[in-house]
Amino acid sequence: MNSKKVIEKKQLEIIIDRLCYELIENHGDFSNTAIIGLQPRGIYLSRRIHDRISEIVKRKNILYGELDISFYRDDFRRGKEQIIPSEMNIDFTVQDKKIVIVDDVLYTGRSIRAALDALTDFGRPVKVELLVLVDRRYSRHLPIQPDYVGISVDTRANDKVKVEWKENAKQDLVHIITNSK
Fold it and tell me: What is the SS3 assignment for 71?
């Protein structure tokens, strides 16, 4: 197996800043917008995005939540292992709000479809947008495209995009692991 670094710490900081300014350009002061990170791996990016936007627009009360999609996935109950859900943390209604769903990697689109299903349990948003750190653009199973992208990468089906966060892996790093079969 080969590993190729595509984002390191300093570049990640620049990408997060760019994504925050793009969001601010489209959502202003976030008075009617909520940021929702997807459990388990999208929350590291969503927390950073939320914190940085709060700092830039000087508002501490921007709506923020974390959504678990375990029981909304189309492969739910197909594996032999028991599913252990992550904590759901949305203490507001999404009714008539603009929602920005945040995840680390967009691959097939199936997680995002599950997130859209799960989100409806909290109300009916007026608009839903998608922000991803890494877009694996040639592997979709569903017609889902991100509105905000950190980087786009071209990968083969057997490649793996691994995102490491200092919060859980002691470093910020994105790399592509190529299976050399």
Answer: helix
Q: For residue 77, is pLDDT > 60?
A: no
Pairing of strands 173-178, 160-164: antiparallel
Q: What is the pTM of this model?
A: 0.92
Ordered DSSP codes for 84-95: -PPPPB--S--T
* Cβ 99 vs Cβ 34: under 8 Å: yes
Token pair 């859980």 in the structure block, residue: 168
Query: pLDDT tens for residues 153-165?
Result: 988 888 999 999 9
Q: Of 139, 168, 162, 150, whose CA–CA distance to 1 is shortest?
A: 162
Q: How many CA atoms lie within 13 A of 59 on its CB side?
A: 15
The domains of the chain, with CATH numbers, are 10-155 (3.40.50.2020)
Q: Please report, as a single letter, which amino acid is at residue 96.
A: D
Place 8 in a pLDDT band, splitting at 50, 70 and 90.
very high
Q: Are the CB atoms for 122 and 88 separated by under 8 Å? A: no
Could you tell me which of 169, 175, 167, 174 has the C-alpha nearest to residue 51?
167
